[in-house]
Amino acid sequence: MNVQSYLKLSVAVAVATIVLKTGAWWLTQSVSLLSDAMESLVNLAGAMFALAMVTLAAQPADEDHPYGHHKAEYFSSGFEGVLIFVAALAIVWTAVQRLLHPQPLEQVGLGLVLSVVSTAMNGALAWAMLRKSRQHRSMALEADARHLFTDVWTTVGVVAGIGAVVATGWLWLDPVIAIAVALNILREGASLVWRSASGLMDHAVDAETRASIDQVLADFAHETIRFDHVTTRRAGQRRFVDLHMHMPAGWTLGRAAAVRTSVEQALMSAVPGLRATIQLLPKDVEAHFGDERDLM
Fold first, then answer.
1. What are the extents of the domains in the chain?
2. Which residues, 6+ apart, have CB-to-CB distance to 116 below 8 Å?
3. CA 188 → CA 5, 147, 194, 244, distances in Å?
4. First to last CA, the chain
5. CATH number listed for the domain at residues 3-200
């Protein structure tokens, strides 16, 4: 399946888990299970927005966006992070009210069964989505997968906590667990927002990709050819590299262009999805950067 198919499946699973977790809360009247159901609502909204952004990111370059729409995926993870913050605040508010007005739990056994079933669904989907996100370098899919993993651990904690409430009779444990859930998803939300902002600021490629680029350039480097000012960036699934290639001034333009074409093809073969821009310069000419006028 492609990235869009996984996100469509994520939407379907989110709807199913909302039904299961809402049923678990309705049966037990547990505020911690309610907080778990609210997080699944965030999963649904996040998956729907991610699907929209991935579809936009897949659109080809046009006159207004000559470099494509790949950065749209970062808006998806940022949006999901903001949704997590909102859900966490709602959970804390509900939990505080229950802490002030404790309420006994009901039909705990059936409620926990529904929660465990929903957790198994989320866990299986999150594992598959995370593998796919690494294969396609999709920020939106990775964000959705990591959020699902957070949901899984949240439910595990809630189920264990409710078991403790039943065993001890301490009703205050239920809202305290809900607050702990909120703090946990706040951490994940902050991570998603930071990763989104980092991507929008033209972050360099990962170390493995940079090593592949450097290896290709090293293979072409020669006493008559050298490379410098290698700069990389990433935008969604796309990778970019800009660099200077120095060669003898006496070479014909055709010969220089042929070597540049070979380097470009080797780079794109080594790093799928890479776009290389190579500026040709005579061997004894240096480009200058850092002029104060560039910062004005």
1. 3-200, 207-295
2. 155, 159
3. 24, 7, 10, 40
4. 47
5. 1.20.1510.10
The sheet that has 226-235: what strands, in order across it? Answer: 226-235, 238-247, 274-282
pLDDT tens digit string along 138-154?
766 777 787 777 778 77
pLDDT tier for residue 193 given thresholds of 50, 70 and 90 = confident
Q: In this structure, what token pair is assigned to residue 293? A: 């006028």
Q: How many CB atoms lie within 10 A of CB 240?
A: 18
Give the DSSP H or E segment for 241. Answer: strand 238-247
Q: Do residues 236 and 218 make contact, with C-beta atoms less than 8 angstroms apart? A: no
Rounded distance between C-alpha atoms, residue 293 and residue 67, angstroms: 26
User: Which residues, 6 or more positions from 293, have their beta carbon under 8 angstroms from its beta carbon?
Assistant: none
pLDDT in the model for residue 220: 92
DSSP 234: E
164 in Cβ contact with 180 (< 8 Å): no
Between CA 206 and CA 211, with CA 208 as vertex, the angle to 5 degrees is: 110
One-letter amino acid for residue 34 of the chain = L
pTM value surpassing 0.90: no
CATH number for the segment(s) 207-295 = 3.30.70.1350
pLDDT digits (tens, 9 = 90+) for 21-75: 888 888 887 777 777 777 777 777 777 877 777 787 777 777 777 767 767 767 7
CB 262: neighbour CB atoms within 10 A? 11
Q: How far apart are CA 39 and CA 92, in angstroms?
A: 12
Q: Is 50 exceeded by the pLDDT of residue 293?
A: no
Token couple for 127: 């594992």
Contacts of 118 (CB under 8 A, 6+ apart): 16, 17, 20, 21, 24, 40, 155
